[in-house]
Amino acid sequence: MMYSAKAVFTERRSGVANMVAGITGQGMALMALRSQPGWNGMLVDEIVLVTPGGWTAERLETFLLAIGASTVKVTTLDAEGRSTSETEERKARMAHPAGSHRGWMARAS
C-alpha cells in the first residue's frame, strides 16, 4: 500500500534519521519527504512511502510514534498518489448531476 504520513518530530534531525532507518529496516520504500511550516514554528514532514503487505494506516501511525514522532496523521493513497478519501469525495461529487457541471434542473422551453 502507499501512504502519506504527516508527522511532527520534536527532535527533527534524529527523528527523521530514525524514521528513514526504521522504514528501510521494515522493507518499506521512501517515495518522498517534504517539509512545510506548521503551527507554532514546528516543521511538518510529509512522508510518502510504500509498505509491504500487512501494514495498515493505524499500524504505520503507531510505528512512527514509536520511532520519535510527536504527532502523526496517516492517509492511504491510490496508485496515482491521491488520497483515497479525496478520490471517494471526488467520485461522489461527480456522481451528483450538479457536480458534473451539467444543468440538472429541467428548463421550460
Explain this structure.
Residues 78-109 are annotated as: Disordered. It is a single chain. With 109 residues, the protein is of the alpha+beta class. The chain has a single domain (2-95), classed as Alpha-Beta Plaits (2-Layer Sandwich). The chain contains three helices and four strands. Strands 2-3-1-4 form a four-stranded antiparallel beta sheet, with helices on one face. It starts with a strand and ends in a 14-residue tail after the last helix.
CATH top level assignment: Alpha Beta
What distance lies between the first and last C-alpha atoms, to the nearest angstrom? 52 Å
CATH superfamily: ACT domain
| Annotated CATH topology | Alpha-Beta Plaits
Number of helices: 3
Q: Mean pLDDT, rounded to whole units?
A: 80
Feature tags:
109 residues; disordered C terminus; single chain; four-stranded antiparallel β-sheet; alpha+beta
Structure, briefly:
Residues 78-109 are annotated as: Disordered. By secondary structure, this protein is an alpha+beta fold.
Question: SSE layout and pairings?
Answer:
Layout: E1 2-9, H1 12-25, E2 29-37, E3 43-50, H2 57-66, E4 69-77, H3 84-95
Antiparallel strand pairs: 1-3, 1-4, 2-3
